[in-house]
Amino acid sequence: MFDLTKIEYSYQTFMQNLNYWLPDGIVVIDDEKIREMGILDTSDEEELPPIAQYFHVVESTEKITLINQEFVIWIIPDLESKEKATTYTLVALNKPDILKLELAFVITDRPSSSWVILKVLENYLEEIKETESTINFFDNQSRS
């Protein structure tokens, strides 16, 4: 199935030096970014996005890990921040031999943050899938 030891090791490696793995930094999801993504246009905040149904979930006191054949996602609440609810999310491609960290984002002080996190994830995962598909297309073209 999934090698949880490898996944945890990758998480620890990424967290030790996020600046190295994500030179563009962590994306801050604010109200403007949420509007750009069209998340507020969705009519029902009570219903979880379909993305929530396609992952195995591993919970610990530190984080929630979502795992499927394509992605590994870590959702990490910042328990140190007492003033504002802050949640970090890391997204990695689940490659056969290695996890490849693609992006990280943070949401701070947002009502319905679980729902918003899943909607933001849904948007970013679609972008990553499209990008990977384009890269694979050009890789295959160059081999032909």
Structure in words:
There is one protein chain. The chain starts with a helix and ends with a helix. The chain has a single domain, classed as Nuclear Transport Factor 2, Chain: A (Roll). The chain contains four helices and six strands; from the N terminus they run ααβαβββββα. A hairpin with a 4-residue loop joins strand 2 and strand 3. The protein has a six-stranded mixed sheet. The chain has 144 residues and is α+β, with helices and mostly antiparallel strands. Helices cover 38% and strands 26% of the residues.
Topology of helices and strands:
Elements: H1 4-16, H2 18-21, E1 27-29, H3 31-36, E2 56-59, E3 64-67, E4 71-77, E5 86-94, E6 99-108, H4 113-143
Parallel strand pairs: 1-6
Antiparallel strand pairs: 2-3, 3-4, 4-5, 5-6
Please estimate the helix content: 25-40%
Provide the CATH top-level class. Alpha Beta
The name of the CATH topology is Nuclear Transport Factor 2, Chain: A
Q: Count all strands and give the number.
A: 6
- End-to-end separation in angstroms reads 33 Å
User: Element order, helices and strands?
Assistant: HHEHEEEEEH
Bulk shape: globular
Q: Helix tally?
A: 4
- Gyration radius, in Å: 16 Å
